[in-house]
Amino acid sequence: MARRGRSLPVSLSLLALVALVSLALSPLGTAAAGTLLTKTQVKRIAANVVENAAPGLSVAKAQTATNSTKLGGLAPDAYLTRSYRYRLPVQAAATSRYYTFPGLTGGTYLFTYDVIMSGTAPGTFCDLVPAQAPQNGEGYSNATPTTGFGRLHGSGVIQFTGNTVRLQCGGSSFTIYNGTETLSSVTFTKVDDLTTGTATSP
């Protein structure tokens, strides 16, 4: 009974093709092959091998791996680290003020604030709250007055929806220091993911 022929595996077929083309197109191959194969014949054979092997080639599958799937479906600029800095305005003295941040969208942010005040007392404080109600604050800080000036500095991570996040300061009459050599500001840096937990204590 006649044996049925089997085609070579894709990898072996390609290796054979590369060897054949290299031999046929090189000066030595041309001389050695003589009239056995012409360049036109070699090209025809190469085209047939590639056409038959194409469905199994990894290159055909790799075409589906676009930049979009590699980046999780997000645009490349979504992976840029973005920070937002807001300067605090100098205003008349008050015992309580709330500062909001236009353009800051909801999300999770690492924040820092550095506030230089005039006319502070030991009870002056600042912290950041994620909503209109003064609760669940982060980064609480008390002023340490020195000859009429006080510095409050705090940091933390805050989560909020919409744009309702604000820095609240109060406890005694104060104004933001109006000198130009140092400025008061609040800075937010977007955090992609936050895992939370509760600390334990022995």
Could you please describe the fold and organization of this structure?
The chain has 202 residues and is an alpha+beta fold. It folds into 2 domains: 10-65, no CATH class; 81-190, Jelly Rolls, CATH 2.60.120.40. Helix content is 23%, strand content 31%. It has helices at residues 10-25, 27-33, 39-53, 58-62, 67-70; strands at 83-87, 94-100, 107-118, 125-129, 138-142, 149-160, 166-176, 185-190. Strands 1, 2, 3, 4, 5, 6, 7 and 8 form an 8-stranded antiparallel β-sheet that branches. Strand 4 (125-129) and strand 5 form a beta hairpin. The model is unreliable at 28-33 (pLDDT under 50).
SSE arrangement:
Blueprint: H1 10-25, H2 27-33, H3 39-53, H4 58-62, H5 67-70, E1 83-87, E2 94-100, E3 107-118, E4 125-129, E5 138-142, E6 149-160, E7 166-176, E8 185-190
Antiparallel strand pairs: 1-8, 2-7, 3-6, 3-7, 3-8, 4-5, 4-7
Helix pairs in contact: 1-2, 1-3
Short description:
The chain has 202 residues and is α+β, with helices and mostly antiparallel strands. It has 5 helices and 8 strands; from the N terminus they run H-H-H-H-H-E-E-E-E-E-E-E-E.
Number of E-state strands: 8
Q: How many angstroms separate the termini?
A: 83 Å
In DSSP terms (H or I, runs of 4 or more residues), the helix count works out at: 5
Please tell me what the overall shape is.
Answer: elongated
| String of helices and strands | HHHHHEEEEEEEE
Architecture of the largest domain in CATH? Sandwich
Q: Over the alpha carbons, how many angstroms does the gyration radius reach?
A: 35 Å
Instruction: Give the uncertain stretches in residue-range form.
Output: 28-33
Which class of the largest domain in CATH terms? Answer: Mainly Beta
In the CATH scheme, what's the topology name of the largest domain?
Answer: Jelly Rolls
Number of domains: 2
Helix content: 10-25%
Biggest sheet record:
8 strands, antiparallel
The assigned structural class equals alpha+beta
Give the strand content.
Answer: 25-35%
Question: If you average the pLDDT, what whole number results?
Answer: 79
